[in-house]
Design brief:
mainly alpha, Arc Repressor Mutant, subunit A, Tetracycline Repressor, domain 2, 2 domains, about 70% helix, elongated
Length: about 220
């Protein structure tokens, strides 16, 4: 009696090796990361990821019941990368004994650099529907990054002095940085201002939200 191939195994094609279930999950996520880097978030269909991974189009559903589950797993990789970038920036700040303003500048520069270098992943990471879904612990990977920014804002602009909740102030600062990343990518910022130099933009943004640089810091 003949049996059809399991849906979570790759199709029989020359050069394609079979994968067990844990390996299949990792393969699908890696394939999605490569695809979003190459072609952007709009290319991340279940069918295309399966095709590039060399598996049947139904295979991803064994590990990812919905499209959003797979997108969330791919986005989680991006947040892990960004968290590693932030951690490296903080180690650099520790080595130079940087104050909170210098640390905020360093984090802002790294954020803009990540947005520019990993454009497709960056756009996927901040899709509202993924974050709202709570899938695969995206809140647990994204909110600690925002908490670090909030802590720096609280040091630089305490609520007792400004009357503004540091969470709200940090949210406004993040929104500004996110807008800078988008407008730089689209070319709109250079068109309007004649420049998209990240150093100048970061300093102007932090001055606007946190006040001018205090030499004592």
């Amino acid at each position: 009696m003949s049996h059809s191939a399991p849906q979570d195994q790759p199709q029989s094609r020359p050069g394609v090796q079979p994968h067990g279930r844990p390996q299949l999950r990792e393969l699908l996520v890696r394939t999605g990361v490569a695809l979003v880097d190459a072609e952007g978030a709009q290319a991340l269909t279940l069918r295309e990821i399966a095709r590039r991974a060399g598996v049947s189009h139904g295979a991803p559903r064994r590990w990812f019941p919905t499209h959003l589950d797979l997108l969330s797993a791919i986005a989680r990789e991006g947040f892990a990368e960004l968290a590693a970038t932030v951690a490296e920036a903080e180690r650099e700040a520790d080595r130079t004994d940087a104050g909170p303003r210098a640390r905020a500048e360093l984090l802002a520069r790294r954020y803009l650099a990540y947005a520019a270098e990993r454009r497709g992943m960056y756009e996927l990471m901040f899709r509202h529907d993924l974050l709202e879904s709570g899938r695969l612990g995206l809140r647990e990977t994204s909110l600690p990054l925002f908490a670090r920014l909030t802590a720096l804002v609280a040091e630089l602009r305490p609520a007792a002095v400004t009357g503004v909740d540091p969470v709200i102030a940090a949210g406004a600062l993040w929104a500004n940085l996110h807008g800078l990343a988008q407008l730089r990518h689209w070319g709109s910022l250079a068109l309007a201002t004649g420049s998209d130099d990240p150093e100048t933009l970061v300093r102007a943004t932090l001055d606007a939200h946190l006040g001018p640089t205090d030499p004592a810091r």
